Amino acid sequence: MSTTGSEDDVSILAMSGSGRAGSPNTALLHAARGLAPAGVTIEIHEGLAQVPRYDRDEDTESRLPPAARDLRAAVAKADGLLIATGELTFAVPEVVRTALAWLVRPAMSTPLLRKDVAVIGVSPGGFGTVRGQVALRQLLAGYGHRVLSGPELLVSAAHDRFDRAGHLIDHQAAQRLREVLAALREQIVHGEGPGGTR
Fold this sequence. Notes:
By secondary structure, the chain is of the alpha/beta class.
């Protein structure tokens, strides 16, 4: 848990699967910061788009790319992760796959080891990133990480859910986001939350 405050306080690192300006998935993470329950601190990692494609030859103490080093350190420091993913050709965006490639190594001391993860997403279409979320959940489960299985947040028609300033204005989506964050906190603190397993 957090090294400051109550022993039940938790820190969550949030990562967006899109590096583009005005990304609704990044906006969803900013909304999460404002909707987080008491005792939950959310930090948004801003450098995901700068993480280079994984290269085993570069994965050494002396050659590790700074963006990859910063990502590993941020994940290691957090109690849990919140990933807002879009979809690319019905799958996980390359920026997320690249980040995971650095985060799952070295295998026995990865910063993702025993880390609780929640996956959410928003898309302009009608499916709310369901296929991207399924693919990401499968990837994370395959690596042996603890993925929150419910509640889910699949936000469709992004243009109707946010105002021009990027603020979440859909009350149902906001309530669902609160539920996801509460369940993630429960899983981190007690080992199991609604729909989540160790």
